[in-house]
């Protein structure tokens, strides 16, 4: 299984059954914390790495990552998210979704397939990656998909979202009066506001943001949501297999690691996620660990994956 996949098995009738509790997280925690070989993961960490490591360096690393995997084969469509977040299936006409860190479109494409009503605004820190996402979606040759997705470049760790995306009550009035939006978006197009979105998806994106920048990033999500709107969150959880594989020299912060290709990853506990979202003004609806066993059949190894699942709502 690829990073971020949950276990879906088809029954005798071909219906997908979803599994996300293959083992107990507390038991995994006890096992890991009692293993001396993992002790370095829990040591205090003091470093000026994050301050000296610029956002431009992070963006360049992710650009190179997506270039290496430009064939689209590295990521599979994340269809399991429709089981995790059924709200994406049942939202009505004119519903708007902001997908942050869209990559090559592995999240937005299954949503477009499953819901003919939703309009998606997708951003990424790399224009090249956005072009590749549009190519993949265009290759489906479904015209309605192309018309329902609009892309723009934005780095969640440092940028603010453009004015036309932010929620503002006066924008709703403008829409009610029949003023139309264009399909060309830029920060200067303040008269073509969409008036906020109904959903924000943060799928394996926040973990790539330096920890000290996360509160500001979550607050940005708050500003673009309509009252009652939701953030749908999924990211790497504490004691995930990939965390335990990092060598000591790959630590760049507490629970924060740098891969050999320069991309970073943070591993979340529930309290960290809760504090980030509640601190930004959100109400917690759901928050839990997804614990999935996947098997590498070629190597005959069982792998324990841990992700954090969350839903957070902007108060009405």
UniProtKB/TrEMBL annotation:
A matching Pfam family: Methyltransf_23
The entry's keywords: Methyltransferase, Transferase
GO terms classed as biological process: methylation
EC numbers: 2.1.1.-
Broad class of enzyme this protein falls into: transferase
Keyword ATP-binding: no
Family recorded in the similarity comment: Belongs to the methyltransferase superfamily. METL family.
PANTHER family: METHYLTRANSFERASE-RELATED, TRNA N(3)-METHYLCYTIDINE METHYLTRANSFERASE
Known function: S-adenosyl-L-methionine-dependent methyltransferase.
Name this polypeptide is given: tRNA N(3)-methylcytidine methyltransferase
Lineage of producing organism: Eukaryota, Viridiplantae, Streptophyta, Embryophyta, Tracheophyta
